[in-house]
From TrEMBL:
InterPro entries: TPR-like_helical_dom_sf, TPR_rpt. TPR repeats lie at residues 25-58, 67-100, 109-142, 151-184, 193-226. SMART domains: TPR. GO terms for cellular component: kinesin complex; microtubule. The lineage of its organism: Eukaryota, Metazoa, Spiralia, Gnathifera, Rotifera. This is Kinesin light chain. Its main location: cytoplasm. Keywords: Cytoplasm, Cytoskeleton, Microtubule, Motor protein, Repeat, TPR repeat. Belongs to the kinesin light chain family. The keyword Nucleotide-binding does not apply.
Amino acid sequence: KALSSHEKALEIQQQSLPSNHPYLASSYNNIGAVHQDMGDYSKAFSYYGKALEIQQQSLPSNHPDLADSYNNIGAVHQDMGNYQKALSSHEKALAIRQQSLPPNHPGLAHYYNNIGAVHQDMGDYPKAFSYYGKAFEIRQQSLPSNHPDLASSYSNIGLVHNDMGYYPKALYCFQRALEILPQSLPSNHPDLAQSYNNIGLVHENMGIYSKARTFYERAIQIAQQSLSSNHPKLQMLRNNLERVKNK
């Protein structure tokens, strides 16, 4: 339904606007985002690329919309495992936003967080921890204590602790995230599913398989309400449950 609506919007704009109008770029980005959420990364990359091409022709080089497009392209590269390209895109996005935002603006935290995520995927945990820490510090200073972005920062730092084998610290971070999210998100939101999955992951790594199974099952129960049956994230949750059942 989201895809159909965004495509209708694009059709209307194509009839009445020049082909390099920034509004068209916005619609291409919207369509790309839906394809990304559906797990169709090649289509997402194609639409994000069209958006960036238009913006490069029609906007100044420090315009925030350009940063958003670089951010989108970086996210798809990351999903596809192209980490160096993802890192380059996210760093370009951060550099653009640093030109127009104060250093403690929560918008900057978003870009620090994205760079940290790529370093984490590359196995460079000290750099990941550094960038996640910058994002967390900004969010603590600028956001209310129940904001979901704070929960996201706790989760990200927890994942690095988990990867480094610091399981009690990881568990603390994940529990803090889970305390925050229900205050600001609907009960079937995928971020809640991910939060339960993270706690399950730590328990699995600590060898407490019965607790891990309980949290994985809860994660799947939530995710099934909001994701398509063949979505890669839902399949990942199911794989986690099967793995801990075997253990």
